[in-house]
Amino acid sequence: MPIQKVDKIWMDGTLVDWDDAKIHVLTHTLHYGSGVFEGVRAYATADGPAVFRLTDHIRRLFDSAAMLMIEVPFSVEQIVEAVKETVRVNNVEACYIRPLIYLGYGEMGLNPLPCQVNVSVAVWPWGTYLGEEGIRHGVRMKVSSWRRQDPNIIPPAAKVTGLYVNSSLAKVEALKSGYDEAILLNPQGYVSECTGENIFVVKGGRIITPPLAAGALDGITRDSVWTIARDLGYEVVEENLLRSDLYIADEAFLTGTAAEVVPIRSVDDRLIGEPGEMTRKIQETYFAAIRGEVEAYKGWLEYVRV
């Protein structure tokens, strides 16, 4: 999906023109993938643009950096304000937000510790990741031939830039095979997550999602949907899932900041069908929450305007 250009990008404490937001070709992270990032969204509300669970996202960004032993030269509070400032200065009502911590120019080699640490925040208008048709009627999924990495190879709990080569391989395989998205299994054969989303299955009246130990990211949207589902009176549990559990699900859906809440229509050509009642209720509540229309969840919104 093409990026829609806006005016400014925040780089190391300074707002620079979009076209001037450049890095050197010998930037360390460009060569070794040793950066961390977040995907965040701001939504239009009756009280102006609001970023959904912004501080939670930035805390996770810093957690990712800590796992890579990257010392960030800013505080969580400074990056939270940088996000708000970048949304504000670009005068966008709704947008996708990409904070990035990367190792800059000046050192080369596999020891990243001496490297300069840089931080940037970019925002741009971006529609739903898997398309409006997917939101309404569900997406076609494929269990990938690529496995999610073992946690003792690269920690899947961290949003590491280089780690997403694994996701890209699975995504391309799925698209070239005629599917919308891929599901990855972990090295033990259990369902882990999708290329950039967590997965939920409804079976026998329960909502089941893989545990974090299966390689699933501790998703902010995953946590939000868990809360919403329980508040709606549904039972939500973490359990290991086999690919065969996906084939016989009563309902299934995926969650993520970019994708939001998307029903799953089929897995490996096993039809699950149109979105079910539980999926629809969760989806409707989530979309109302991000627009500031549910009083109980207004604490998830951080407003941009001063």
**What's the number of helices?**
8
Between the first and last Cα atoms, what is the distance in angstroms? 31 Å
Architecture of the largest domain, according to CATH? Alpha-Beta Barrel
CATH superfamily of the largest domain: D-amino Acid Aminotransferase, subunit A, domain 2
Query: What is the C-alpha radius of gyration, as a whole number of Å?
Result: 19 Å
Give descriptors for this structure:
8-stranded antiparallel β-sheet; D-amino Acid Aminotransferase, Chain A, domain 2; 8 helices; 306 residues; D-amino Acid Aminotransferase, Chain A, domain 1; alpha+beta; 9-stranded mixed β-sheet; globular; 2 domains
Please describe what this structure looks like.
The protein is α+β, with helices and mostly antiparallel strands. It has two domains: 8-124, D-amino Acid Aminotransferase, Chain A, domain 1, CATH 3.30.470.10; 132-290, D-amino Acid Aminotransferase, Chain A, domain 2 (Alpha-Beta Barrel). Helices cover 27% and strands 28% of the residues. The chain has eight helices and 17 strands. Helix 2 (54-67) packs across helix 3 and helix 6 (220-231) crosses helix 8. It starts with 7 loop residues before the first strand and ends with a strand. 42% of the residues are buried. The mean pLDDT is 96.
